[in-house]
User: What shape does this take?
Amino acid sequence: MTDKINNAYLKDGLVTFAREIGFDSCRVAACSAPAHTKEFREWLRQGEHGEMDYMRRGEEKRCEPEKILPGARSIIVLALNYFQGETPRRGMATGRIARYAWGDDYHEVVAAKLDKIDNFLREFGGVQKCYVDTGPVLERDHAAQAGIGWHGKSTMLIDPRLGTWFFLGEILTTLEFPPDAPQHNRCGTCERCITACPTGAITAPHRLDARLCISYLTIELKGAIPLKLRPLIGNRIFGCDDCLDACPWNRFAEVSRESAFAARRSTTAFALRDYLRLNDAEFRNLFRDSPIKRIKRRGFLRNVCVALGNVGDQADLPVLEEAAADPEPLIAEHAQWAIQQIRTRSKSLNPSPVPVHPNDANERDLLFKSQNCD
Ligand code: B12
Ligand code: SF4
Ligand code: SF4
Assistant: This one.
């Protein structure tokens, strides 16, 4: 009894401390099996994780968090806003990078903050394990259980204040804190995310086939991007935000307090063809401490070639010809494809521009009015 009272006090201290070090939300769930293990296992059985083998390898631990930290009693879930507002639209030739990658790599930013909480709890005898997208944890299930937000139909977790623009971090701890209540689902009859997806990757509410998702294709997939999906990628070169941009709950989003996520010029204002000129050292230098460095020059230039194939013109051909002779076969093949696309387009009497999805603020507001969210 005394322990429970003490831990209720400690929880207040924890939440205050989390806020002080920059987190936007800190809530607690009991350490128990996630609510959607059945759906997760089915997703794996259907192969919808594609080449993300780590998802399959961690199956048992994801379904039973006690296997990660024996004696764990609570899961502390933290949310960190990364929204940066709008950047000026610079046209198709700039390429689009998902907002989460505009600034520094969140893995490092969030992990450093989680370490501080770990140290804080150690003083009270807690043993902890911290994760931010780095371990076998079904993060969104625990976050929903703790009431950080609700499961959107896009599979994104939504907080009514932050929208979808936040990262999650978890701390499994042997300390037992009073759990928080879940939030009720406020998607209502809305299905904006499902219709906004350029590739049909959200195959049903709460179900995403990663093999079709542009985020997967441009970040997780290591090899060639399937030919039939290339035209659907448009000018996206790292990740995708279409189902997030479409979500009416994002109209409430406020700019993050975290300066590490401030947009860099290299992620919001570079011409596609300038990226194509980067050698390996320049690439590493340009994307130091950015999540983009993870896919290396070969993955990034592969994506840039696809984007140029979709939106480029004759002026891009010289730099694409150089890329077509790149010693890295992956880049060379995608550059050849892009050249072919541009030549076919310029021969055509009526070149059709790549469709862009309606995601600017005005249009979103208009659409929100016609939705029945909540
Ligand atoms: C693998 C992965 C991906 C894959 C697959 C995504 C997916 N939907 O599965 C790819 C590469 C496509 C991807 C893309 C993105 N990702 Co990602 N990804 C992950 C990762 C590592 C695992 C997700 C997972 O477990 N997938 C398995 C499926 C089965 O689970 P799920 O999609 O989360 O679905 C849950 C719910 O839908 C629910 N559920 C299932 N059925 C039903 C039915 C009902 C009725 C209900 C209510 C719920 C429900 O249960 C599932 C399990 O919790 C997590 C980190 C982590 N360790 O959890 C980050 C994570 C989910 N990604 C994140 C982000 C930011 C993104 C992107 C926005 C990045 C971008 N802009 O390009 C996109 C968003 C795409 C999208 N709509 O999800 C954040 C999401 C934060 C948030 N607010 O939700 C996470 C949590 C990373 C982090 N620590 O911040 N990602
Ligand atoms: S991130 Fe893009 S491709 Fe993936 S589900 Fe959302 S809208 Fe579709
Ligand atoms: S777009 Fe609509 S259905 Fe999709 S997650 Fe947002 S509120 Fe839910």
